[in-house]
Amino acid sequence: MNPNDALDALEARLRPQWLQARDGDEAAYRRCLDALARRLRGYFGRRLHGPVDEIEDLVQETLLALHLQRGTYDPTLPLLAWVHAIARHKLVDLLRRHGRKEALHLPLDDLPEALHPSVDDEPDARHDIARLLASLPAAQQHAIVRTKLEGLSVAEAARLGNVSESALKVQVHRGLKKLAERLRGG
Fold first, then answer.
1. Are 168 and 147 in contact (CB under 8 A)?
2. For burial by CB atoms within 10 Å, which of 14, 52, 111, 132 has the most?
């Protein structure tokens, strides 16, 4: 099977699940998120040659963004193109946060700009993120807000939180993992 056929088959399998999930089917949502998580691990793993926990954090951030931006998905467009655009934005954000020069050399997507998702702050998305974050311990909330939402470096966020950089990374990782479990219905 050539790569385009495999991609078409994946789109044909996941798009109906995503649409069912938008209509309230929690089982379809979990299946779709699990499949997307596997795909995202491969996508990020091929682009980042860093620690597995960094890749997993990026997967969880992307799944959270998909959840929060789910209302922006246009069902007339390919689901995987929308997912890929959000994943690419998360990857570029990570590279910029870490000051990596590779962020400037990522190939541009073949996806026309008109097909890129809107990243407007929606009131529903802000409410969802606030509710999800409120379910976490305060240290994890602050670590995620400072590094993932405010864009502070790990060093800056650690200083603000009066913790070591290692402790902050653990807080972010554990918090994102808990959020992902909640999104999957766990």
1. yes
2. 14
